Amino acid sequence: xxxxxxxxxxxxxxxxxxxxxxxxxxxxxxxxxxxxxxxxxxxxxxxxxxxxxxxxxxxxxxxxxxxxxxxxxxxxxxxxxxxxxxxxxxxxxxxxxxxxxxxxxxxxxxxxxxxxxxxxxxxxxxxxxxxxxxxxxxxxxxxxxxxxxxxxxxxxxxxxxxxxxxxxxxxxxxxxxxxxxxxxxxxxxxxxxxxxxxxxxxxxxxxxxxxxxxxxxxxxxxxxxxxxxxxxxxxxxxxxxxxxxxxxxxxxxxxxxxxxxxxxxxxxxxxxxxxxxxxxxxxxxxxxxxxxxxxxxxxxxxxxxxxxxxxxxxxxxxxxxxxxxxxxxxxxxxxxxxxxxxxxxxxxxxxxxxxxxxxxxxxxxxxxxxxxxxxxxxxxxxxxxxxxxxxxxxxxxxxxxxxxxxxxxxxxxxxxxxxxxxxxxxxxxxxxxxxx
Length: 436
Hints:
- By secondary structure, the protein is α+β, with helices and mostly antiparallel strands.
- The chain folds into three domains: 5-119, no CATH class; 144-204 and 240-429, no CATH class; 205-237, no CATH class.
- It is built from eleven helices and 17 strands.
- It has helices at residues 12-27, 36-48, 59-66, 79-96, 144-164, 180-183, 227-230, 246-261, 295-299, 372-381, 385-395; strands spanning 5-7, 104-108, 115-119, 195-200, 205-208, 211-213, 237-239, 243-245, 265-270, 283-287, 305-306, 319-321, 331-332, 349-357, 363-369, 404-412, 420-429.
- A seven-stranded mixed β-sheet has the order 9-4-10-15-14-16-17. A three-stranded antiparallel β-sheet has the order 6-5-7, with no helix packed on it. Strands 11-12-13 form a three-stranded antiparallel β-sheet, with no helix packed on it.
- The longest helix is centred in the middle third of the chain and has 21 residues, at 144-164.
- It is globular, with a radius of gyration of 22 Å.
- The chain crosses the membrane at residues 151-172.
- Keywords: Membrane, Transmembrane, Transmembrane helix.
């Protein structure tokens, strides 16, 4: 297929088994025992899991089959939306009580009725924070050979995480403690001595009879309505969480090691399986573009640098500068910039680093650019003490804790791969709503 994206999740058959078992547990629970409507809905979802026809997840099919309304018209009848809302509320009740110990939890893909199961990340007791972190000697250089080995281990480790449904994946190699400057930097201070969720963006692929297809005009659930028109092969079935960029896997390996130096652990998940509510009280790093991590569309919507409007069936890339200052571009890449697959690979890319401290107690760090290699490259640079120290002085007021911070970089691709980065601009918002 010529893609540099690696498989990270179990086969569809194994995921279907996990989903079916979770639905059976719900049907056998006391929480759902007195709700005939919701039990009918759960039975339908369980039976539909075995189908390869994407139409079984449509509102029309659910209304006609699950609720027995032969002439169901979603424009006139709201029963599916009402019962799905009740189901989500009942699931919250179940997992807060009777199902609190469940290793897997039923969730629904954004803007669809298609269910999936995600690992439940239990709260991890925070270890004591050491009073000071001494500066370590320079770490040994990582050779190209050892880095390639790390990428392979990363791919295997991430597959094991999703297959084991929530078992922590860690690299247990001994690491040096991070320097005090790194541990206390505004970017990383919130990620010390805790469990960090590392969410990797997963591009949408389609399975057809002879193989797989990736089309850059189809990324989000809204794009499925035009899939038949833009795909080269049809019929085809969407695969949301089956692949991850190869470079992101390598970056996740290095990131796990870095987090260990902050006395933290890492849990790897697909970025399509996280929700805003799931960010509450947690520390989350989202690696990848909004087209592979839909939560970012909403999470960044109020930030200055944000994804542009999404139009179904059109390429979704880059980011806009909502309030451009003199000399700044209104969109990155600029008007002449296009996605990697449509442009000269020697052209530069732009990346935005976003750090957000949420009102629900969560903290999120996200990095993305148009090219698959860009985000992984920036993540590695953010673990370089020299670069972090420069950003500390250039971007942040060390006397105030930021509410959100965004930094834009230009990444050099003159040699076909990322070889350097240049600071472009930034925005920082403090709790008093003063921006600098």
